[in-house]
Amino acid sequence: MARFRLSAWSAQAGERGWSAALIWLALPLLAWLAWRTLRGRRAETAATMDAAGLNRPWPGQDSEFYLVERRMAQLGHARRDDEPISEWLARTPAQPGSESLQRLARLHYRHRFDPAGLPAPEREALRAQALAWLAQHPGQT
To answer: What 3-state class would DSSP assign to 74?
Structure first.
């Protein structure tokens, strides 16, 4: 079957001339080269965007509130993966400093999710209050 098609193609090429045959051979090659070129440009664009810092870490990942969350887990009050911080704090037993945790959570939410972020004094307040809470609630060793 393949020989038949090849001989038929060869006969047609002889009748029409080799220029028509070369065009039909060149079309798939050109399509393949175009595809490779475009694919390579997309990869370069993605690498450039990554290098430009567009894949930065999420804002607020440096929040000291995560240290408080870790300490609460050590104290037996772990937060579920799908649980918002406000619901987590509402379900934990009332304990001294729970109001300070609510204030910390509000600052953390703003630091984490507010497009404007936290002004420097409030960012420092988040840090200082979280560290003070950690000092008042030592972990289990």
So the answer is: helix
CA–CA gap between residue 72 and residue 77 (Å, rounded): 5
Q: Give pLDDT, residue 23.
A: 74
Per-residue pLDDT band for 55 (boundaries 50, 70, 90) equals: low
With vertex at residue 99, the alpha carbon angle to CA 98 and CA 104, rounded to the nearest 5 degrees, is: 95
Q: What is the mean pLDDT of residues 34-62?
A: 69
| Interval 59-78 mean pLDDT | 90
Helix (H) or strand (E) holding 23: helix 18-51
> Using CB atoms within 10 A of its CB, is residue 72 exposed (0-12), middle (13-18) or buried (19+)?
buried
Distance CA 65, CA 103 (A): 11
Mean residue pLDDT across the chain: 80
d(CA 63, CA 94): 23
Residues shown for the chain: 141
